[in-house]
Amino acid sequence: MTHSNPTSVTTQIRQRLEHAFAPHVLDVVDDSESHRGHAGFREGGESHFNVRIRAGIFEGQSRIARHRAVHDALGADLISQIHALSLDIGT
Question: GO annotations under biological process (predicted)?
């Protein structure tokens, strides 16, 4: 039996970052469970994420420019669904 579930936040993060940056390293970790009982925690997770991304496009960009680029790629609609986003961005 198949269900037409909406795409998970984790999958959307991965897809949008792959499309925008063609990274050679991309780790998207849902760290929500470790925040149980804290602000922003939602049953079922997908509220707290750790993202590690490496892509040549970030060469020469400041830390702030890299973060802005990732936020822009994710989009306001997706960012609004995330309580906490930890970014490790490099080349």
Answer: iron-sulfur cluster assembly
